[in-house]
Amino acid sequence: MPKTRAFAAALALSLIAGLAPLGRADAQNQAVVQTAVFAGGCFWSEEKAFDGLPGVRSAVSGFVGGHTARPTYEQVVRGGTGHMEAVQVTFDPRVVSYRALVDRYWRTIDPTDPGGQFCDRGPSYRTAVFATADQRATAVASRDAAMRVLGKSFTTPVVGAQRFWPAGAEHQDYARRHRAHYEAYRQGCRRPQQLRAIWGDAAVG
């Protein structure tokens, strides 16, 4: 019996020792992960534009920029909450930089349209980059570079980070889960054609 208890104790210690480095690595990975928030009109489209990119851990549809806590889709679309549809991108900066994500963002929207995006009109479909203090200079530099590419002034602002509220589960991964419906929406809005007219081969979406 003593030998059995000793063996069990030794086994437990070896397992703990083996798992400890993995725990530290997980903690380090969590610490390095960052988020970016972009309002770009339809959040289904913005989520699709970032989901699956190397270095992107997740892309979540939701709302940002308003004054109502835990807004619902119906409340935001109806108006009065001040929110915009947005995507929160969680990413590993060791794999993809924040600058690369912002550069991509411009090419998913018409940054010269202050009233919405394509067939989606109204305050909840306005565009903006919600940047932290550490992200702001990078976002502004990306915006300036994109304006030079188009040779036009942008109405899409770079503003301070604000609380992001995830949308309901029915809106997450929408383009993947409802491919036919999303594609009908996308083509009905002429989104790919209009983006290509703005950005040419660099268009995303």
Spell out the blueprint of helices and strands:
Blueprint: H1 2-32, E1 34-40, H2 43-50, E2 56-64, H3 73-78, E3 84-91, H4 98-106, E4 116-117, E5 120-121, E6 127-131, H5 133-150, E7 158-160, E8 164-166, H6 174-177, H7 179-188, H8 191-199
Parallel strand pairs: 6-7
Antiparallel strand pairs: 1-3, 1-6, 2-3, 2-8, 4-5
Helix pairs in contact: 4-5
List the keywords.
alpha+beta, 205 residues, globular, 8 strands, disordered N terminus, six-stranded mixed β-sheet, two-stranded antiparallel sheet
Describe it.
With 205 residues, the protein is an alpha+beta fold. The chain has 8 helices and 8 strands, in the order H-E-H-E-H-E-H-E-E-E-H-E-E-H-H-H. Strands 7-6-1-3-2-8 form a 6-stranded mixed sheet, with helices on one face. Helix 4 packs across helix 5. The longest helix is centred in the first third of the chain and has 31 residues. The termini are far apart. The N terminus is likely disordered.
In short:
With 205 residues, the chain is an alpha+beta fold. It has helices spanning 2-32, 43-50, 73-78, 98-106, 133-150, 174-177, 179-188, 191-199, and strands at residues 34-40, 56-64, 84-91, 116-117, 120-121, 127-131, 158-160, 164-166. The termini are far apart.
Rg from alpha-carbon coordinates: 21 Å
Q: Strands of the biggest beta sheet: in what spatial order?
A: 7-6-1-3-2-8
Mean pLDDT: 89
Measured between the Cα atoms of the first and last residue, the distance is 67 Å
